[in-house]
Amino acid sequence: MTVTKIALVGIGKIARDQHVPALAASDAFELAATVSRSGGLEGVENYGTIEALLEARPDISAISFCTPPQVRYDGARAALAAGRHVMLEKPPGASLSEVHALQAQAAAANLSLYATWHSRHAASVPAARAWLADKTIKSVRIDWKEDVRVWHPGQQWIWQAGGLGIFDPVINALSILTEILPVPVYVTGADLRFPSNCETPISGRIQMGGPDGPLVESDVDFLFEGEPLWRHVVETDAGTLTLNEGGAVLDIDGTTPATNGAEEAKLHGEYDGLYAAFANLLATGSSEVDLRPMTLVADIFTLGRRLEAPEFIDPTLQEN
Ligand code: NAP
C-alpha cells in the first residue's frame, strides 16, 4: 500500500484526542510534521506556520486541518496553492462561500478536498440509514445537550463570530440527520439565545420541514449538566428509530437490531473511518464536500430569532 506523508495543522483537543491516534493506527498515512503555534507534538517535526511547512517539506502531499473554523481558510488555500491535498475538520470553514472557493480551487488543480463529518462514522449511523431508506418519515426529534464547560473548556473561539456556539456540536447532529434521512429537510424557524457577552448562541430551538410539511423539532443546549444527551428519535410508518450517544447506539422500538457495519465501526473509531475515507479519495483522485449540514446551520442563523441569555463566564478562564 502507498503510504502518504501527512501534516496536522492545529494541535489542540481534537488533534491530540483523535487525529494523532487515528494516524498512528493508519496504514495509509504517516504523520510527517505538524504546524503548531505552541510547539506541536513530542518527536514530530514542527513548523510555526503553514507557509514554512509548505516551503520546507514538498514531500508531504496531504495536510489535515484541526484549527478553529475562523482560521481554516487561509491555510487550506495556501496548501492547495502549493499542490497539496486537503482534509478539513468540521465545520469545513467559517462561511459557505469560502468552502465553495476551496472546492473550485481544488477542482481546478486536480487535488482532493475532503470536508469531514466525523459523526457520520459513528458506529450505528450506517445501520440507521439502511433501516430508514424505505420508510415513511412521520417526525424527527433531536436533542443535543451538553456542558460546554466540560467539553470545550477555555475554547474562546466558540464564542466568537464564526465559532457557532452551541452549533459547533449541533452541526454533528445535522450531519447525521442529512446522512440517515431518505428525504431532504429545510429550516423553517429557530429561536436562538445569545449570552449578552458572546457573539454566538448558547441554546436554541429549531424547526424544519420535509416534503409533506413540518418534520423536525430540535432542542439544543450548551449548559446541560450531567451526562450529555446526543439523540435523534425518528417516528416512521414502521416504528420508532432512536439513535443515542451521537450515533453510536441504535434502538428500534425498544430493541437493538443486528446492525450491518456497527461492530466493524465500533472496533475502529470515527476518525479511523475519516482517514480511511481520505485515503480512498486520494487513491481515486476525487473530492468529497457535502455542505448540507453547514447550509442548515447557515439557514438557522438566517431565520433564527435572536433572544438574550445571561452572560456566560467560562470557569477555566476565570481560574487563570
Ligand atoms: P482547540 O482545542 O481550541 O484546538 C484548536 C487548535 O488550533 C489550537 O490548539 C491551536 O493549536 C490552533 N489554532 C490556530 N489558530 C488558532 C486561533 N486563532 N485560535 C485558537 N486556536 C488556534 O479546538 P478543538 O476542540 O481541537 O477544535 C478544532 C476543530 O475541531 C473545530 O472545528 C471543532 O469543531 C473540531 N472538532 C472538535 C471536537 C472536540 O470534541 N473538541 C470534536 C470534533 C471536531 P496550536 O497551538 O498547535 O497552533
TrEMBL record:
GO terms for molecular function: galactose 1-dehydrogenase (NADP+) activity; galactose 1-dehydrogenase activity; L-arabinose 1-dehydrogenase (NAD+) activity; nucleotide binding. Pfam families: GFO_IDH_MocA. Its EC number is 1.1.1.120, 1.1.1.46, 1.1.1.48. Residues 5-111 form the Gfo/Idh/MocA-like oxidoreductase N-terminal domain. It is an enzyme of class 1 (oxidoreductase). Keywords: Oxidoreductase. Gene3D superfamilies: Dihydrodipicolinate Reductase, domain 2, NAD(P)-binding Rossmann-like Domain. PANTHER family: BCDNA.GH03377 (PTHR43818), DEHYDROGENASE (PTHR43818:SF7). This is L-arabinose 1-dehydrogenase. It comes from Tritonibacter horizontis. The gene is araA_1.
